[in-house]
Q: What sequence folds into this?
């Protein structure tokens, strides 16, 4: 799409345009908006969990979204709401940018926002997108993010982006990054190694009694999440609740506990809604 190709050019041209006094209502307003200082919005990719953090941001035209790549080997790749884990042809793509234990610098991918329409991004590594590693720049609202995450989780696999496009890669010092890396040996890419069989999918669909309709992921929408969102390594998801009930009530020859469980559900990415 041309909005990507044009993004950098646009930024360049905006700053190159000599500021001349503009009167008039709306057009003057718009000129003012464009003339305003663009800001850099950091987004942390990966880390202790396979996430974008934050996973929804509001950016003005000319702002720079700087993806900072934490633990793992992730991408920031553009897709669409309809095909969340498939690269948009000609879309933005950072390529795979790893972060390994001991690194003192951080790989980045910076893109200039050239429009106000939602931009859908995902990580094309392995099953990350199916785990919900997606984000939206300028979502229409919280529901769109929920829809996007759900759509991603419902896909079978991800498409691989091709060339780096729509932005530039660079490095920054780890000390200047918006994150603290996961501690070494922290199984940088998944849940705890010896994850027990995990309790059966809690909360049966409870037909009508939908008293607890908790939305899939949305855990406590952090109010107005600051862009930098410098959250220290989130402590491991301590076994949720008292699901110690694995008592073999009946004498069935254990038919379940087999491949019934879907993809590992343990480290499900939390969704932070900055609304
Ligand atoms: C990152 O992932 C890509 C794609 O799977 C792979 O080609 C590359 O070697 C990986 N890099 C590292 C450092 O693991
Ligand atoms: C919810 O379930 C309880 C127990 O199963 C039942 O007594 C109650 O009537 C149900 N409520 C609704 C709204 O269905
Ligand atoms: C979990 O179970 C233990 C032992 O049955 C009990 O002491 C504890 O209070 C329970 N915790 C919760 C949160 O229910
Ligand atoms: C479980 O089944 C076995 C073999 O069918 C039987 O010997 C045993 O008594 C059963 N135990 C219970 C608790 O039903």
A:
């Amino acid at each position: 799409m041309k909005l990507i190709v044009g993004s950098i050019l646009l930024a360049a041209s905006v700053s190159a345009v000599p500021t001349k006094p503009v009167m008039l209502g709306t057009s003057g307003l718009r000129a003012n908006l464009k003339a305003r200082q663009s800001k850099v919005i950091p987004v942390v990719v990966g880390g202790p969990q396979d996430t974008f953090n934050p996973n929804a941001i509001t950016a003005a035209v000319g702002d720079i979204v700087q993806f900072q790549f934490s633990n793992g080997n992730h991408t920031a790749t553009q897709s669409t709401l309809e095909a969340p884990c498939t690269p948009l042809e000609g879309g933005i793509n950072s390529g795979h940018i790893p972060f390994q234990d001991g690194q003192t610098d951080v790989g980045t991918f910076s893109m200039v926002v050239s429009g106000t329409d939602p931009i859908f991004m995902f990580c094309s590594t392995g099953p990350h997108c199916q785990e919900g590693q997606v984000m939206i720049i300028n979502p229409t609202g919280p529901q769109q993010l929920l829809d996007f995450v759900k759509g991603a989780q419902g896909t079978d696999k991800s498409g691989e982006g091709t060339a780096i496009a729509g932005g530039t890669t660079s490095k920054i010092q780890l000390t200047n990054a918006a994150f603290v890396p996961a501690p070494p040996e922290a199984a940088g890419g998944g849940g705890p190694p010896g994850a027990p069989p995990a309790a059966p999918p809690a909360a049966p669909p409870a037909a009508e009694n939908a008293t607890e309709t908790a939305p899939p992921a949305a855990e406590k929408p952090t109010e107005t999440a600051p862009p930098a969102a410098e959250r220290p390594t989130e402590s491991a998801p301590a076994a949720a609740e008292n699901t110690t009930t694995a008592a073999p009530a009946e004498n069935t020859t254990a038919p379940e506990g087999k491949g019934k469980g879907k993809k590992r559900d343990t480290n499900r990415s939390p969704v932070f809604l900055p609304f």
Notes: Residues 251 surround 2-acetamido-2-deoxy-beta-D-glucopyranose (ligand 4) (CB under 6 Å). Residues 223 and 274 are 6 Å apart (CA to CA). The longest strand covers residues 105-112.
